[in-house]
Design a protein that fits this description.
Blueprint (H helix, E strand, L loop, with lengths): L1 H13 L15 E6 L7 E7 L7 E8 L4 E6 L27 E8 L9 E5 L2 E5 L6 E6 L6 E5 L4 E5 L4 E3 L2 E3 L8 E5 L2 E5 L3 E3 L4 E3 L8 E3 L5 E3 L1
């Protein structure tokens, strides 16, 4: 089915680069994406301003109000990579920026814009030309708001599993936070619970935590984000 091919394509494009398995600890700079069912029902129009100017300003794009894909940051190590016979190229070392936010991806349809010229790109699988650009997906930052406690009920018993408090776990920060909306992430040199970058009605300004090197501010679309 065409949708299934699109899902496979998106998963392949977000699972890019990095170091071979023998290298030191990898950053969580990839996204692993799942096909999901969403209970949301809404419609929206958005203006999309690309950070890279060659990708146009797309006004009045229509978002269909059911997320189709949910993505989480992952660390990837290449175990085996096979190229066509005779090719000497090995995996290219291209580590990316550490990711923290999950993503929800929606179908998006934008008015026909000026054609985008073919681009030469490179990832760990080599250098090539990509072309025929068409807007198809919009992925938003997302936060899991009720993951601290899970309860399983059967006809004979009820089992409750409680997440440990925010702390280093398996090489990353994970665990529950005391206040609604907080996320467990790196805070200074240790793990801590912080509010993610968002609009603060108390101050009428943007506030909250962003990854290292970014600040929480209003983006060109008038939305709070990490810039």
């Amino acid at each position: 089915m065409k949708f299934s091919r699109n899902i496979q394509w998106l998963a392949a494009t977000v699972a890019l680069t990095l170091l071979p398995a023998t290298a030191m600890a990898q950053p969580f700079d990839h996204l692993k994406c799942y096909r999901v069912k969403d209970t949301a029902k809404f419609s929206a129009e958005v203006d999309l301003l690309a950070f890279q100017t060659q990708f146009n300003v797309d006004p009045l794009c229509k978002v269909k109000g059911k997320a189709k894909i949910f993505c989480v940051p992952v660390e990837k190590s290449v175990i085996n990579l096979t190229y066509p016979s005779g090719s000497p190229l090995g995996p290219i070392n291209m580590p990316g920026q550490d990711l923290q936010d999950d993503r929800l991806c929606y179908r998006v349809k934008c008015p026909v814009a000026a054609p985008i010229a073919p681009e030469e790109v490179q990832d760990q699988f080599g250098k090539r030309i990509i072309s025929s650009f068409k807007s198809q997906w919009l992925c938003t930052n997302a936060i899991k708001t009720n993951f601290q406690t899970t309860t399983t009920t059967t006809t004979t018993s009820t089992t409750t599993t409680t997440m440990p408090s925010c702390s280093p776990q398996g090489g990353m920060c994970a665990g529950s936070c005391p206040n609604p909306g907080e996320i467990c992430t790196t805070s200074g040199v240790s793990c801590g619970c912080v509010m993610p970058c968002q609009f603060d009605p108390a101050t009428a300004m943007c506030g909250g935590q962003c990854p290292a090197g970014l600040i929480c501010d209003i983006d060109p679309l008038g939305v709070c984000g990490c810039l």
